[in-house]
Amino acid sequence: MQNNTNVSAEEISRFEKLAARWWDPDGESRPLHDLNPVRAAYVAGRANLRGAKVADVGCGGGLLSEALARAGANVTAIDLGEKLIQIAKLHLFESNVQVDYRVQSSTELAEAEPASFDVVCCMELIEHVPDPAELVRDLSAMLKPGGQLFLSTLNRTPAAFGAAIVGAEYLMRLLPRGTHHYAQFLKPSEVATMLRRFDLELEDIKGLAYNPLTRNASLSSSTAVNYVLAARKTA
Ligand SMILES: C[S@@+](CC[C@H](N)C(=O)[O-])C[C@H]1O[C@@H](n2cnc3c(N)ncnc32)[C@H](O)[C@@H]1O
C-alpha cells in the first residue's frame, strides 16, 4: 500500500474485530443490515446500475457491494481492513455474485483509476477518517464527468449523539463503545461545502430513519441523525 495516510489504524482495528460476525444480521452490524435495503434502493432509484462501473469505498464486509452487484453493477469495493476484505470475499461463495474486493485506500483507487467510475458509494465512512475533505477529493477524482456520488453519514446534532452513541453504544449495546466520535459527525452543510470544493453538485439529500427496537428503516425528511445524499460530478 503506497498512499493511505487518511486513515486511523485504531478505526480499522476496531472494525476488523467485527469481521467474523459482519454478515450476522443480529451481530454488531445489525444497524447496517437493517439500513442496507433502504440505501441500496435509494442508489438504484437514482442511478442506472445495470452494467455501470461502481466503486464502494470503505465497503466493510460488503453488504452494499453485494446489493449493488445484484442490481447489475460491476462493483469494485475497497476497505483498509484486511480481515473485512477476507470476509467479504468469502461471502461471495454464498451469494453467487461478483465483486472485485481490494485492500486499498481511496487515494490509491483514485490514483489507479481516475475519472473511471459511473457511480461511487461511500456509506458510513466519512465520519471515521482523519480528513473528510481529502476523502471527498478522492471520491470526486474517481468519478467520470457526470458520474454520481452517494454518501451517507451521521449529523452532528444532539439527536445523533443520543441515537448513535448513547442509544446504540451504551443503552442498547448494539455497537461496541467508541465506534463513533461525536466531533467527527458532519453537518450536511459541511459536506455540501466539501462537495462544491471538489466539483460535485448536491442533487438530493434524505434522512435515514431507523428504529433499533422494531428494526424498521426508511427514508425520511429529517436529516437530524443519519442521512444519505446524492451528488453529481460536474467537471
Ligand atoms: C461503519 S463501517 C461501514 C461499512 C460499509 N460502508 C457499510 O456501510 O456497510 C466503516 C468501514 O470503513 C472502513 N474504514 C475506516 N477508515 C477507512 C479508511 N481510511 N479507508 C478505507 N476504509 C476505512 C472500516 O474498516 C469499516 O469497514
From TrEMBL:
Molecular function via GO: 2-polyprenyl-6-hydroxyphenol methylase activity; 3-demethylubiquinol 3-O-methyltransferase activity
EC main group: transferase
An example Gene Ontology biological process: methylation
Protein name: Ubiquinone biosynthesis O-methyltransferase
Species of origin: Luteibacter jiangsuensis
Reactions performed catalytically: a 3-(all-trans-polyprenyl)benzene-1,2-diol + S-adenosyl-L-methionine = a 2-methoxy-6-(all-trans-polyprenyl)phenol + S-adenosyl-L-homocysteine + H(+); a 3-demethylubiquinol + S-adenosyl-L-methionine = a ubiquinol + S-adenosyl-L-homocysteine + H(+)
Enzyme Commission number, as recorded: 2.1.1.222, 2.1.1.64
Binding site for S-adenosyl-L-methionine: 39, 58, 79, 123
Pfam family, one: Methyltransf_23
Similarity remark: Belongs to the methyltransferase superfamily. UbiG/COQ3 family.
Chain's role: O-methyltransferase that catalyzes the 2 O-methylation steps in the ubiquinone biosynthetic pathway.
Record pathway: Cofactor biosynthesis; ubiquinone biosynthesis
